[in-house]
Design a protein that fits this description.
α2 (45-60) runs antiparallel to α3. This protein has helices at 2-43, 45-60, 64-87, 89-106, 112-130. The model has no long low-confidence stretch (mean pLDDT 86). It contains five helices and no strands. By secondary structure, it is mostly helical. The longest helix has 42 residues, at 2-43. The protein folds into three domains: 1-43; 45-80; 88-139.
């Protein structure tokens, strides 16, 4: 019976070690993914361009000439989108404000403080983008 208890404790110890490793792996992976998403967002359009180019090259096996031509097209699209965004800034702001007001109407008084922080972050982001800064510079 003593041997069985010792053996059971060994298995229990191994199970605890395994579970601790699994939890550490999950937490580490989540932190890595969160970091990569924030870095991607902070980089803005250049990161999107790289991602699109990588995906197109991987799926289509682009030639060197095609990569050069498509990179120029993506640059044109980015420029045109920026011009569109700049000329429609007021409309974009009205749409976002209307959405923020609708969200606010759904919240409880207990959620007001947290909502004000989130709303402030959204408005600061919009102001940075409008001013031509990076979408998510350090605050």
């Amino acid at each position: 019976m003593a041997g069985l208890m010792r053996n059971g404790r060994a298995w229990l110890g191994m199970a605890v070690i395994f579970l601790c490793g699994a939890v550490a792996g999950v937490l580490g992976s989540a932190a890595f993914v969160h970091h990569r998403i924030r870095a991607f967002h902070r980089e803005g359009p250049p990161a999107v361009r790289r991602l699109v180019m990588h995906a197109l090259d991987w799926k289509l096996d682009l030639s060197s000439a095609q990569k050069t031509a498509i990179a120029a097209i993506l640059d044109d699209v980015h420029r045109d989108f920026g011009l569109f965004r700049d000329s429609h800034q007021e409309q974009i702001r009205l749409i976002v404000d209307r959405g923020l007001q609708r969200i606010e109407a759904e919240l409880t008084p207990e959620q007001d403080d947290a909502w004000e922080d989130l709303r402030g972050a959204v408005e600061a982001h919009l102001e940075r983008v409008r001013a031509g800064g990076a979408p998510d510079e350090k605050r």
